[in-house]
């Protein structure tokens, strides 16, 4: 059971994203991003790039290595069909002196050295001159048939250096499995009845209020017997959709020593996949974000491929869904799969949201339909690069998209953002977002 002990000795269930909250999901001016067009220049034309994360310091600020910022992305050769990229995902790093122009530095782990037959999303910590590269080990190294086991791993011991030629990350890395599902709070693959099993996407976070060192991750809550399950107000068919946001804690602060604790959010009966969970702390609370798909909502709930969010006054909730339903950013109805895998981070008064450019120009096709298109058509409609960064405001459990930056523009530190003009501005005082900053016309 995923009950947890409170300090006073009582137990309580983790906070939930309920079916009735999610039933309110609906596109609005505040939550729909502008249409995305291909960038003028692709940073890495030979690669499909998707989930991306920034190198950070222990306090969550974005690390700078001699003036460079560094991101890590899941990548695959661009000549592969986009739908098969997850089967060969490899983590590569990119660096930039200005947060706009990125150079690929190569793979972070030499082939065959990391855990898993491929590596999925993670997070990256630079602390005390040490690199901690957290990742998901999917499957087993060397397996001939792909399996979907997922374990949370880290590579440590490598170095990161910078000179006038750029940044280089070098091994050898020591790899360690940090976490596996316990079958009690976190479903093992053999317990899963759902469509897509998850135990992945570790995200390092140090709680500024308590100093607690945490690793968040995407998981599923075990549902031993759906017929007997009265804990959730959902029928047995909906209970197969059992996504959660997991947490492990390091009591010593050592980023390689973790103990599992009960989830901080459960979407049982609501959604199967609460992907890439991460937190943005602001004066008005802990904003917990996850990405999820239209097709992973339980029967009876119509959601979108979107960034969803929740706010609480502490890391373990009670969480209230942002904008009442949880919907924070989605794609326009005319391009519902144009971006995915959002990552939010604070910048000045705003929250910036990066994502990758996914399938576009589908003209009403579903993601399932895409797989039946001729290979060249599948390739043509897949972005596989960073999308325009979105600018958000958040206040009192509500958010609003303010505008966009260019594809892959990731401002840090005190970098000033262009004035907000345009369709997004409150007072209608003028222009920008699309026109000047690369998106083309704003159209929903
Ligand atoms: C989201 C995601 C992640 C996973 C990766 C695998 O885009 O499903 O949860 O780590 O893709 O490619």
From TrEMBL:
Is Hydrolase among this UniProt entry's keywords?
A: yes
Mind listing the UniProt keywords for this protein, alphabetically?
A: Hydrolase
Instruction: Note the Pfam families from the entry.
Output: Glyco_hydro_68
Name the Gene Ontology molecular function terms of this record: hydrolase activity
Start-end of Basic and acidic residues biased regions:
1-11
Q: Which spans are transmembrane here? A: none
Region entry Disordered, spans: 1-22, 423-444
Q: Enumerate the InterPro entries for this protein.
A: Glyco_hydro_68 (IPR003469), Glyco_hydro_beta-prop_sf (IPR023296)
Can the keyword Hydrolase be found in this entry's annotation?
Answer: yes
SUPFAM superfamilies on file: Arabinanase/levansucrase/invertase
| Similarity comment text for this entry | Belongs to the glycosyl hydrolase 68 family.
Write the protein's name: Glycoside hydrolase family 68 protein
Organism source for this protein?
Halosolutus amylolyticus
């Amino acid at each position: 059971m995923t009950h947890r002990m409170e300090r006073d000795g009582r137990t309580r269930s983790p906070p939930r994203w309920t079916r009735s909250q999610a039933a309110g999901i609906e596109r609005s001016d505040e939550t729909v991003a502008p249409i995305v067009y291909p960038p003028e220049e692709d940073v890495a034309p030979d690669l499909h790039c998707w989930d991306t994360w920034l190198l950070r310091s222990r306090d969550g600020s974005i690390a700078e290595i001699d003036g460079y910022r560094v991101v890590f992305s899941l990548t695959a050769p661009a000549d592969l069909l986009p739908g098969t990229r997850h089967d060969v995902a490899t983590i590569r790093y990119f660096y930039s002196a200005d947060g706009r122009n990125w150079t690929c530095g190569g793979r972070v782990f030499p082939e065959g050295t990391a855990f898993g037959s491929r590596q999925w999303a993670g997070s990256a910590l630079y602390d005390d001159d040490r690199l901690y590269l957290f990742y998901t080990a999917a499957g087993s190294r060397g397996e001939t048939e792909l399996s979907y086991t997922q374990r949370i791993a880290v590579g440590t011991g490598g170095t990161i250096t910078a000179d006038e030629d750029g940044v280089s990350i070098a091994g050898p890395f020591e790899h360690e499995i940090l976490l596996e599902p316990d079958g009690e709070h976190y479903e093992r693959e053999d317990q899963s009845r759902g469509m897509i099993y998850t135990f992945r996407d570790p995200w390092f976070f140090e709680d500024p209020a308590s100093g607690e060192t945490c690793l968040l991750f995407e998981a599923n809550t075990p549902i031993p017997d759906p017929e007997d399950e009265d804990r959730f107000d959902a029928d047995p068919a909906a209970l197969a959709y059992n996504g959660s946001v997991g947490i492990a804690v390091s009591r010593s602060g050592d980023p390689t020593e973790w103990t599992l604790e009960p989830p901080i959010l459960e979407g049982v009966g609501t959604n199967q996949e609460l992907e890439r969970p991460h937190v943005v702390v602001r004066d008005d609370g802990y904003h917990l974000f996850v990405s999820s798909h239209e097709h992973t909502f339980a029967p009876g709930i119509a959601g979108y491929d979107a960034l969803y969010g929740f706010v609480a006054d502490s890391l373990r909730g009670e969480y209230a869904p942002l904008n009442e339903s949880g919907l924070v950013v989605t794609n326009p109805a005319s391009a519902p799969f144009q971006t995915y895998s959002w990552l939010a981070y604070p910048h000045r008064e705003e929250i910036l949201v990066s994502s990758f450019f996914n399938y576009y120009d589908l003209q009403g096709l579903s993601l399932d339909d895409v797989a039946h298109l001729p290979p060249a058509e599948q390739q043509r409609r897949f972005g596989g690069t960073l999308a325009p960064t979105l600018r958000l405001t958040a206040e009192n459990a509500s958010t609003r998209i303010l505008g966009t930056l260019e594809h892959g523009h990731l401002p840090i530190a005190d970098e000033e953002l262009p004035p907000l003009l345009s369709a997004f501005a409150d007072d209608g005082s003028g222009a920008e977002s699309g026109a000047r900053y690369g998106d083309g016309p704003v159209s929903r």
